[in-house]
Design goal:
Arc Repressor Mutant, subunit A; Rna Polymerase Sigma Factor, Chain: A
C-alpha cells in the first residue's frame, strides 16, 4: 500500500543495504524535521540534537522497518516522542525565554510596516509557544507541514477525531490571542496619537 511513497522505497532500499538511500532521506527530511522540532522544544540547539537522535533511531531500526504508514508519518512519530520526552524533563520546564531575532540591520531606520510585521511575528510565535504541547503539535503538523489528520493521528497516537479537536482548539486559541494582540496594538496606537 505505501510502496508508492518514494520515501518508503528509499527506506526499504536502505534496509536492504543501500547506504546512499539513508543519505537521501536525511537530505530530504532533516530541514522540515528541524523546523518542527524547533517549534516543539523552543530551542534550536536542542532541536538539532533531537533531529540527529531521530535519524539515529531510523538508522538503528532499519533491519526491523516495515512500511505500515508513510515514511514521514513514521519519522514524525519518532521525533514527536523525542520532543515530548524532552519537554517532560525537569530542566526544560519554564525554559522558554524569548531570544531576540538577530538579523541584518539596515543603516536607516526600519519602516513602520517592518516593525509591525516583526511585532506580529513575535506575537504569533508567542501565541504558538503558549499552546498546550499536543495542540501545538497537531496544529503545526497539519497546517505547517501539510500532514492529513489521519497522519497526525498516527504521529501523535490518538484518533482523527481527537486531532480535529486539537487543531480546532489550537486555531481558536490563536485567533483569540492574536485578536487581543490587535486590540492592544490599536489601544497603544490611539494613546500615542491622542
Amino acid at each position: 500500500m505505501y510502496q508508492s511513497d518514494p520515501d518508503v522505497v528509499l527506506m526499504l532500499s536502505f534496509r536492504d543495504g543501500d547506504e546512499a538511500a539513508f543519505d537521501q532521506l536525511f537530505e530530504r527530511w532533516a530541514g522540515p524535521l528541524l523546523r518542527y522540532m524547533e517549534r516543539m522544544v523552543g530551542d534550536a540547539a536542542t532541536a538539532e540534537e533531537l533531529v540527529q537522535e531521530a535519524f539515529f533511531r531510523v538508522h538503528k531500526a532499519r533491519s526491523r522497518y516495515e512500511p505500515r504508514a508513510r515514511f514521514s508519518t513514521w519519522l514524525y512519530r519518532i521525533a514527536t516522542n523525542l520532543a515530548l520526552n524532552e519537554l517532560k524533563r525537569p530542566r526544560r520546564r519554564h525554559f522558554h525565554e524569548e531570544e531576540e531575532n538577530v538579523g541584518l540591520v539596515s543603516q536607516g531606520p526600519s519602516s513602520e510596516s517592518e516593525m509591525d510585521a516583526r511585532k506580529k511575528g513575535t506575537a504569533v510565535e508567542q501565541a504558538l509557544a503558549d499552546l498546550p504541547e499536543r495542540q501545538r503539535m497537531a496544529l503545526w503538523l497539519s497546517a505547517a507541514e501539510g500532514h492529513s489528520y489521519a497522519e497526525v493521528a498516527s504521529v501523535l497516537e490518538i484518533t482523527e477525531k481527537a486531532v480535529k479537536a486539537l487543531v480546532h482548539r489550537g486555531r481558536t486559541a490563536l485567533v483569540e490571542r492574536l485578536g487581543s494582540y490587535e486590540d492592544d496594538t490599536r489601544t497603544t496606537v490611539r494613546r500615542g496619537v491622542a
